[in-house]
Amino acid sequence: MILIILIFVVLSVTLAFLIYRRVAYFDLLHVTHEKFDIFYGNSKNSSLGKWSVCYDVDRIYQKFKNQFPIAGFMRNFTPYIIPLKHEMFKQILITNFKNFRNSDFALDVKRHSIITLNPFWLRNESWKIKRSELSPALSSNRLKAMYPLMDDSVKEFSDYITNEIEKSSSMSLNAREISLRYSCNSIASTTYGINAHAYEKSSDVLHYGRKIWQEISKSTISFFNSDQVISNEVNQFFIKLTNQVIQNRRYNNQQRNDLLSFIISLKDKKNASNIESAAAAMTFFLNGFETSSVALCYALYEISKNVRIQEKLRQEITEFCGDDKDQRVPIDTLSNLKYLDQVFYETLRLHPPLFYITRVCNDDVELMTDDSDEKQLILKGTTVWIPIYSIHRDSDYYRNPDEFLPERFDEECGGVKAFRDKCVLLPFGDGSRICLGMKLGTLQVKAAIVEVLRNFEISCDDSTSDEDAKIKPNQFVNSPNEKIFIKFKKIKL
């Protein structure tokens, strides 16, 4: 009986402390905030699966951005500070990076042998060492050497679309699905040196690629923090896959310009374990699987809705690449397509694959809030939430922010660089923790867009609405509805 009473008292005190911490947290810091629910905080609708958390944050951002430098956001039991001025975004991500070098994602290495060796989830020196170790694999020269492998995947993608529309009277395909299958085949080829057979009904790599992102999302958006991010089944599949492809490569003495060759070289140089090699491969695979497919899906969706943009982009592609569709597009040509670059970044502006960034302040720091001398103190231990989705749709930075308008990045307007320098264009993040796979993902998506527009006229199916392009609830990364359908019409020679 005494034990029961003691347990009750402990639980009551703990609950009372949590409630006090939640209710008083922002007031003690003198940070403006909305009133919040005692259990759900400011994220009741996203916690209940009604919409994405980015819409909860956007409501707060829009409400306070012209009044205060920062605002409070309570996500379930976790408090966040939202910076509301672009000067602060740049200081947090770049200028004062030493004070904000870690995200608030951290996993137990012993329980998550592969995931936790990904730089995205690492902290401090572990992050720095691992990132510097893997970065050379994605240098410009290595990507140029790997590009023919991507080009093979692009050609297969085009053939797959042709075969599918020939079998369908409507010529309408699920953009989300075909984009995911393409990115799976492409990244499996460059990372593991294999054909993932993602266009077939049964593909283990595609299955486990979907599964790992589902498990990551389920864990990161959970009401309570979980110490189990990916299942042992998924973990073991990718460890086994990496071991097999390395053994086959060694046995056949095969030389191939891909990421697997880099991983093998790194393994020999460091005497790395099988788990470390599998973790390196998984890092590259994750960088080119889900986020690249999301970017491609949204690009096709936006282009299919706008005939003018589609024709202008196709004209540029034809001008630089010629009319012969069997003639492959060199990587240097792909890089010189300026309007393609504008379309690509406008897609990522409206539909950023990662719609927020978090950073944990590791030491008290004062940040400039604007061009004046006004400063904002951020205390050690504070977690900052940078709302990429909201920044990208802020009318203070973008004219008609909800419109798909690639011309906003014209050179005479300063191009993409002007917005990146201002730190209001953050599809890959920025600073030292900028997305490791940025260049790889960009190549994957741009190559696919060019191949599609060289071979097909595309239009948005009548069954697809703007609601279908909204971010699904309960997702760690931007994931559109499965109902985005696009019609493909083969361009005759």
From TrEMBL:
Into which family does the record put it?
A: Belongs to the cytochrome P450 family.
TM regions (residue ranges): none
Its recorded name reads: Cytochrome P450
- Organism the protein comes from: Polypedilum vanderplanki (Sleeping chironomid midge)
Q: Where in the cell is it found?
A: Endoplasmic reticulum membrane; Microsome membrane
Its GO CC terms are: endoplasmic reticulum membrane
Entry keywords, A to Z: Endoplasmic reticulum, Heme, Iron, Membrane, Metal-binding, Microsome, Monooxygenase, Oxidoreductase
Needed cofactors, names only, are: heme
